[in-house]
Amino acid sequence: MSLLIKNGRIITASGDQVADILVEGETIVAIGRNLPAGNARVIDASGLLVFPGGIDPHVHLDMPFMGTFSSDSYETGTRAALHGGTTMVIDFILQKQGDSLRHALEEWSARADGTAVGDYSFHMAVTDFNEETKKEIKGFVDEEGITSFKTFMAYKGALMIDDRQMVGLMEEVKRCGGLVTVHATNGDMIDYLIAKHRAEGKLAPLYHYLSQPEVTEAEASERFAAMSRYTGCPGYIVHLTCEGALNAVREAAKCNQHVFVETCIQYLLLDASLYEKDFEGAKWVMSPPLREKKDQETLWAGINQGLVNVVATDHCPFMWEQKLMGREDFSKIPNGHPAIEHRFELLFSEGVQGGRISLNRFVEVACTNPAKIFGMFPRKGTLGIGSDADIVLLDPNEEHTLSAKTHHMNVDYSAYEGRAVKGKVKTVILRGQVAIDNGECHLKKGYGQFIKRSKVTDHI
Amino acid sequence: MSLLIKNGRIITASGDQVADILVEGETIVAIGRNLPAGNARVIDASGLLVFPGGIDPHVHLDMPFMGTFSSDSYETGTRAALHGGTTMVIDFILQKQGDSLRHALEEWSARADGTAVGDYSFHMAVTDFNEETKKEIKGFVDEEGITSFKTFMAYKGALMIDDRQMVGLMEEVKRCGGLVTVHATNGDMIDYLIAKHRAEGKLAPLYHYLSQPEVTEAEASERFAAMSRYTGCPGYIVHLTCEGALNAVREAAKCNQHVFVETCIQYLLLDASLYEKDFEGAKWVMSPPLREKKDQETLWAGINQGLVNVVATDHCPFMWEQKLMGREDFSKIPNGHPAIEHRFELLFSEGVQGGRISLNRFVEVACTNPAKIFGMFPRKGTLGIGSDADIVLLDPNEEHTLSAKTHHMNVDYSAYEGRAVKGKVKTVILRGQVAIDNGECHLKKGYGQFIKRSKVTDHI
Amino acid sequence: MSLLIKNGRIITASGDQVADILVEGETIVAIGRNLPAGNARVIDASGLLVFPGGIDPHVHLDMPFMGTFSSDSYETGTRAALHGGTTMVIDFILQKQGDSLRHALEEWSARADGTAVGDYSFHMAVTDFNEETKKEIKGFVDEEGITSFKTFMAYKGALMIDDRQMVGLMEEVKRCGGLVTVHATNGDMIDYLIAKHRAEGKLAPLYHYLSQPEVTEAEASERFAAMSRYTGCPGYIVHLTCEGALNAVREAAKCNQHVFVETCIQYLLLDASLYEKDFEGAKWVMSPPLREKKDQETLWAGINQGLVNVVATDHCPFMWEQKLMGREDFSKIPNGHPAIEHRFELLFSEGVQGGRISLNRFVEVACTNPAKIFGMFPRKGTLGIGSDADIVLLDPNEEHTLSAKTHHMNVDYSAYEGRAVKGKVKTVILRGQVAIDNGECHLKKGYGQFIKRSKVTDHI
Amino acid sequence: MSLLIKNGRIITASGDQVADILVEGETIVAIGRNLPAGNARVIDASGLLVFPGGIDPHVHLDMPFMGTFSSDSYETGTRAALHGGTTMVIDFILQKQGDSLRHALEEWSARADGTAVGDYSFHMAVTDFNEETKKEIKGFVDEEGITSFKTFMAYKGALMIDDRQMVGLMEEVKRCGGLVTVHATNGDMIDYLIAKHRAEGKLAPLYHYLSQPEVTEAEASERFAAMSRYTGCPGYIVHLTCEGALNAVREAAKCNQHVFVETCIQYLLLDASLYEKDFEGAKWVMSPPLREKKDQETLWAGINQGLVNVVATDHCPFMWEQKLMGREDFSKIPNGHPAIEHRFELLFSEGVQGGRISLNRFVEVACTNPAKIFGMFPRKGTLGIGSDADIVLLDPNEEHTLSAKTHHMNVDYSAYEGRAVKGKVKTVILRGQVAIDNGECHLKKGYGQFIKRSKVTDHI
Ligand SMILES: [Zn+2]
Ligand SMILES: [Zn+2]
Ligand SMILES: [Zn+2]
Ligand SMILES: [Zn+2]
Ligand SMILES: [Zn+2]
Ligand SMILES: [Zn+2]
Ligand SMILES: [Zn+2]
Ligand SMILES: [Zn+2]
């Protein structure tokens, strides 16, 4: 079966051309003017922008949490992602301290395999680095195609590794050709502040915010960059939110170091004033928390400076009832917010239509860099001959409004309720199949594949 | 007439695909697998890399200097460039202090028009910004398609403008949609050191180097970035050479500012030890001078960090006899060295084959960014449907040696004599015509066109 | 004649002791408990703080300006200084461009000698550095006891020297054992902004402020520090006002450089909101202008960090009628404000009583560091055996209010009208003579001596 | 009993005067010219420098370690200190994890009380901060006169506290009016490197050095400064050794923070090349290790910039036989080197005579700042009326050579064997008693007193 997408304005991270795209099977085979349709299904893209499928490298689907799970399954989550132009996600496997990486991989695969609608991969979160864990790294890189290893500098006793483990992991991951990613906040300081606020009876969502001040992120980012520099292991900071943390990266640049930086769409668009809404602030309880307007400016600038490489979501939705677990105590509010469906359109609307970033930069941070950094390029992340036919058609001028009533994520509130967006995803193709058209999903549960990834490089 | 380039590995700044390219007339019309040849001339690119034509945005051809001229004319210079994979150059028109911009444009056009073999454009160097000059800016941007305005913070009395003029120019250029570029060194300090060295009888080429210490460049770069930030005018630093200057840019990044940075191939590869060779050092007398090994490391890192955007040459060749004008006094050595022909291959060899940068990054800094920053994208700088068919086929494995005996530049020495290079340009196409093949140039004098450029943006 | 000051709490920059001070002639001869009075006049200092006489190293008395003069003569100015606890000042001789240093010295000496009530010295402002000027430097250091050379990076055409002159001057001053001080603002940028505002009809005092944004000072401070580092000449920045400029110094500290920093009392206490008062803002039209609250914080912190070494005034008073010269055009308002009388008490009140600095630090920045940096220590700036008996008795608890009605400066408005001050100078002694007592000055015009200064060092 | 020290050149941190000092009992009562001798013992100080007694705020005497003790007792250690001009030391009480602060205080007091010859105090090292520990802080400050609390960011499982404890401690110490001091190195990274080197059979003293690279100290210093800034608790970094760490402090200065910095004499004078001497390098095995020449430059500059406030020793001597415990494994070498006797003379010789620092600065960092920062000023640290008569007479021109044969410390090697010193301590007075004269100690064991200290301030 083949598809011919006609007359779209095709945008890649470094291209801008009006042309047709011919797809055969799962693959793009030609881009050109007036390509013959043959027996291909023709999709008219006149007036539309044609992008590579979005890649969200930071999501948490069906994630076990305090006896329950994040509310989007691999099915609902990847389907919602497709609605919003994201054709692939990377989720996180969490090692249980005291247990093996492999065991966690099996557990996560059991939930995802045969369930996902869109394509997916996993980062392997190493929460207990020891001699046994060390032996498993090479197999993940060479055989499982899982080449990125997530670490936590917070959540002591559950997820956190100390700096000794971090340096040890970095040396092993470097040796094997992988990448270490990090949740970079100073967990000890945060634990202190949480305990202090609770002891003082300060229990509202606002105190979630006040327990994770900018310094906790700046400090840890600086520390992570120092360890990455010392070991020479490629490093990647997830969900960087603030000026202090980006300045730590900028300072590290003076030592000729390159550490990749991801921010998330919410840190570009929302700010901490939302925590002043009493318990409604729980909708945006996530870690790190939302920051200030000055931080938004810093992040947009960082994208244009080439220092912020990726815009993700850290999608981790919980139903309002689940959020209510923390009604009496902010520290019990499940962390996370729903965004997997909106990242692509929001970044387009605020970034490109808002005049903050170019079309090429949009594709770079939403599609291409995630693919490159995580070892899937050029199969994913661009529109090239031989690439997977993951394609998004977007009408740049169509305005619409986000709402829990209309979104496709399995969560009963929207973090962006009522927000106006300029630019709407019209058609999405995943590996040659029309996934989304006219607001309908045409793919079945299980269509999504696990994508094996290659060894990584610190040069993209 | 059409061309079909078959089976090459096509690399753009964000693409990597094995495919055919079909060219009709001057334009690329299709990229795909197994494109039908029709009556097109077929060029087999199997095993070759296929790049966009290189763009060197910093050259000086036929430049008047002390009663003589730089030794490459627009003919010999652009032809040599083509031999080395560079299909377009941007030269500098120099306003004469006291005279108009337009008069200088006419003078430069007279030398270039009908002479160039490859495509070209001009930056307009503003050396005397006053009320009359101010009135000319808009016309250059809107009508002449000359949107970048070069300034000098050195060469007082000849080319230098002071900071008052700089800020005034920036405000006007910003208003008109242009870009201010700068030779950022502290000319006053340099003039002092030159005079001091001469007074002390220190007259060898080494003292050219010692008269332009790193601080003179770091200081001026910092100052330029500050003025660009204050005015909001997009800025671009030409031929940045050293750690101190790049750190000034990195520091400016913390103020959320983006200033574009160009380095030149020689600053990545050569170092100041060459000035210890007595008068032979005159071959590399240029401004700024070559720096230290630590600066090379900084520049390569800056490329990977996304902070160094362009690799150019500052090509300004002089015959050895011309260089001899300064035998008794370094300050009389004509500044500049020949590199227009070698930039593309040297950057490929040392950058890509040397494992320092990726293929995509190579294209970004050698082709795409110059086109984007200077308003010629996507017509130039990439391989896309509708783009000019400026195409380079390079054999990544062919090794060869640079020499004045074999180069095509009109200069009787090589700054890279005997240097081994891995990767050789085999075929070059300019606007659909085979320009270089088998080491021969097939284009005539005058084929090269003046390319009008668009308004610029600080978002690329 | 002798004096015995009994039972005061004697504070120096590193001492804190309750004791008696015995003065014989002009000199302190003993400090101790229960010193015998002999035939000495006894002054009871119980409950008072006893400080070294304040030194204000930045004043402009009887300064020629646009056909008139700053309104305090050496008589009225030094007398007012004494009233406020400042026993010595350093004024500025301004070389006339095209003329010699010596000629200016003669002119200034003619106005000061035999006129001053308090002690004084001069900085020599070099506004035209050339081969002739260069020859004069050594004589000023060795014979005149004038070892500090002031430069201006602003006021082109009148006072400014360019960077070539600056570097040349620094090398000569270093060779001779002197110090280069600087008014560090980018005059070219400021000239641009002044002209622009005037052209736009923006003529109120507010535009004086808006014509000298922080960047103009930060940039020049960074540039000056770079030149000082390159030449190795000790440097001193006068009237540093803002975060950007102090950060430039802090950044220079990373290169192991030490550059001395002076701020003025007004930059610690007043802010730019005063410019919003229509023409009344003219009272505070000075260069640099008042800054923001965040800058005040930075300056106080800089004092405690040891990076801001001196608090001066840049006292340069003009009668309201003189200020009115700029009623229609801010650029015609004579620059400067009256503060010579209040610096000591204001710094005590806001710094020490306000809990911002220690008593020792107060003496360090108001007395000792000026003496050390400018080569008068230990004769001046401390209370030691053999030091000049320049002594201030201050009641730390007496509250009073500043006003033009009560001040002793020859100016008809107060820049601090109505400001409450905690701490009052009660008695002042200059070289063993009671200068001020009970609010009366007991010294005659001409008592003040010109103090020859020693070669300087960058180690204090 | 009284003493009259005649005609010395008396130097304090801000004074320089030739005069006599009269001592009655333990106290200075007068400073002046030609003071009457009365029945006082007269000491002729003509031609000598007269300094306040040195204070070494970082020593470890009789410190329990692996079943043995550091080789200097409070008797031998404080006596050796007196020989070298140091009249007071501050030692460290180490809390045992799981045990109370008080219990440790009792243990340490038992060893020191009645034993010391010179005066002393203790820092309280908090190695286990919990609810019980928290309750003890106030008592130490208010009743015991122990106002500084030492922390370790290294030595996990023995001395280290985590950042949660650190922040908690800081808040409590701030509340009580104390100061938190820190051994700032990243213990986790160091533990990793030690284990790695041992696993690789790299067991020589050189690997002690290579296990503690600059980054481990820079990182921890930055982190400590961040926590100090966040909590507002005054902070003090002990034994800072390197450029990276001082730059962290300089960067913190930009946030208007002041954190006190101590370096030690060995980091100013010795460098890591000593570790290349096979096992002899064990003599200088200490933590942090010696660094590079560039770090020495940074530290001297830091002193002149006012950012390095104190020069101490971290004196912790071990006999050669004790050092041999680590012959087969660097990690078993007892850490520390003997310096308590030499600090004052070495700093004078290399600092003052070497032209690197002024006489005043010498006193500031060797005497006055330790007294001020740790709450003993003006009783200790200066020469003022009412101050303890702790006085050192030093002949600035006498040259001598350091050696284990002649030193007074109880250790059988010298870390400075054969080093020439210009300037020799001739006479030392402690609280009015001649302690050292003609190379003999005239004080008995037990003369030394425990000095209660006051609440501290971050303004000195
Ligand atoms: Zn996270
Ligand atoms: Zn996450
Ligand atoms: Zn240039
Ligand atoms: Zn050039
Ligand atoms: Zn000034
Ligand atoms: Zn002034
Ligand atoms: Zn330690
Ligand atoms: Zn210690």
What features would you highlight for this structure?
homotetramer; 460 residues; alpha/beta; TIM Barrel; eight-stranded parallel β-sheet; 19 strands; binds zinc ion
Structural summary, described in words:
The structure is a homotetramer of 460-residue chains. The first copy, chain A, has 460 residues and is an alpha/beta fold. Chain A has a single domain, classed as Metal-dependent hydrolases (TIM Barrel). Chain A is 32% helix and 24% strand. In chain A, strands 1, 2, 3, 4, 5, 16, 17, 18 and 19 form a nine-stranded mixed β-sheet that branches. In chain A, strands 6-9-10-11-12-13-14-15 form an eight-stranded parallel β-sheet. A two-stranded antiparallel ribbon of chain A has the order 7-8. One zinc ion binds at residues 58, 60, 314 of chain A. Chains A, B, C, D: Its cofactor is Zn(2+).
Major sheet description of chain A: 9 strands, mixed
Helix content range of chain A = 25-40%
CATH homologous superfamily name of chain A? Metal-dependent hydrolases
Question: Which parts of chain A are unreliable, with pLDDT below 50 for 5 consecutive residues or more?
Answer: none
Hetero groups in this structure are: zinc ion
According to DSSP, the number of beta strands of chain A is 19
Shape of chain A: globular
Architecture per CATH nomenclature, i.e. the level-2 architecture of chain A: Alpha-Beta Barrel
**Total discrete domains of chain A:** 1
Q: Averaging pLDDT over every residue of chain A, what do you get?
A: 97
Largest interface: A-B, 52 and 51 residues
Estimate what percentage of residues of chain A fall within beta strands. Answer: 15-25%
Give Rg of chain A in angstroms: 21 Å
End-to-end CA span of chain A:
34 Å
